[in-house]
Here is the input.
Amino acid sequence: MAGAACSSYNALNTPNAKNLTTIQIGGGRKATFDLAPVDYGFFELYGIKPLAGRLFQQSHGEDGVLADPKTNAMPTVIINETAARTLGFSDPHKAIGRPMLWARGRPGQGPSMGPPPMAPSQIVGVVPDMPVTVRVATDPTFYFVVPKNLNVLSIRMNGRDIPGTIKAIETAWKKTGKGAPLNEIFLSQFRMNLYLDLIIQGVTIAICAGLAVLIACLGLFALSAYTTERRTKEIGVRKAMGADTRSVVLLLLWQFTVPVLVATAIAIPLGALAMTWWMRGFVYHAPLSAWIFVLAAAAAVVIAWCTVSWQSFTVARAKPAGSLRYE
Here is the structure.
C-alpha cells in the first residue's frame, strides 16, 4: 500500500453526492457551493497539486481547528477553479489569503435557533477541478479539514501484491468496522460503471461499422471483377499501344476512387453534424479536428484500393494477345 486518506463523497465529486451550502460573494450576492470535508493528505494521495497557495498541512494549526468539536472557529479552506471564478478571481493567486463567507453549524445550535450566521474562512489554496465524469460540470467546491466522521477511505496501492493488500484491508476492517459491511471498489471500476452505457454503445457501433465495411468491400470487389471483365479488350488495346502495367492499374484504381471520394464528400458533413450533436451530451469533450475527417477519407480510399488492387493488377498483367481474343 502506497498511501491512504479519508474524505467525504463530495470531495470525490461523485454524481448524486452533493452537500450544498450558500456562499456570499461580492456585492452582497450569494452563490451555491458544494462543501467537501477531507482529511490531511487527500490531495497528495490523488496527485493533485495546487494552482496557487498550499495544501492542508498538520503544521498549520488553523487547518485543523475542527478537531475540537466545541470550537466556534472557522477552518481554512481550499477552493477549486470553478469556485475561484465564481468568487470573482480571474487569477487563482488573487484568491489566496482572501476571506470566504459561509455558514457553518455551531456546537449546540439547533433548528430552533435559526440558520447559522455567516463567518469568514481564509482561502489558503486553489486546486484544479476534479471531474469524475465528463457528462456533468464540476460544481464550485471548497474543501476543509474534518478529522472525524468521514465516510470514504481512499487507498493507493503500489501494485506489487494487490490480492494480499485487499485481504489485509478486509482483515483490518473486520477488527475495526463494528460488523458493518465493507463496500470496496477500484476507482477504474467506478469510472467504468459511469460510462457502461457508452462502452456498450461503442462496441455495438464498432461491430455494425465493421460489418458495413465488410459488406461494402464485398460489393466493391464484385464490382471491380465485373468492370475489369467488361474492359478486358480495352486493356488489351491499351497494352498493345504501349501502356505498361502500372498505368493500367492506376487507371482502374482511379475509376473506383472517384465514387469513393464522392461518397466521402457526402458522408463527412453528415458525420460532423452527428458527432457535434452527440458530443453536446458531454460537458467536457475534445474539439472536432479537421484531420480526423481527412484521416477517415484517406482510410476509405486505402480500403477501396486494397479491395480492388489485386483484381486490377491481375487484369493489367494479362498479355495483350489473350485480352484481344477475349469475348
